[in-house]
Design a protein that fits this description.
rod-shaped; 3 helices; mainly alpha; single chain
């Protein structure tokens, strides 16, 4: 026969582990949450690239001769800005 205090200790330990498991299960991120996170990262990266590419194309269209200097330069700047956006967002949300 086991003494009563040992049974109470075992019962409390099992209940504590069950509560931890329930809490971990309820706090787990869903597939939707991960999809939204990745979609947000995509938007944060692509929007500056596209906007600056259009701006560069417009500026190159104003030039008298054929030029792609502004387009290429602003695409590279957009890539840099997009990468910084993603880095800051991931750092803040993880």
């Amino acid at each position: 026969m086991t003494p009563q205090p040992q049974n109470d200790k075992l019962k409390r330990e099992v209940e504590r582990q069950a509560q931890r498991r329930r809490r971990a299960h309820s706090e787990r991120d869903s597939l939707i949450a991960h999809t939204v996170f990745l979609g947000t990262l995509g938007v944060l990266f692509i929007v500056p690239v596209v906007l600056l590419a259009y701006l560069g194309s417009w500026l190159d269209g104003l030039a008298e001769a054929y030029s792609s200097r502004w387009t290429v330069s602003l695409i590279l700047l957009g890539l840099l800005i997009g990468a910084i956006n993603v880095w800051l967002y991931v750092r803040e949300h993880t």
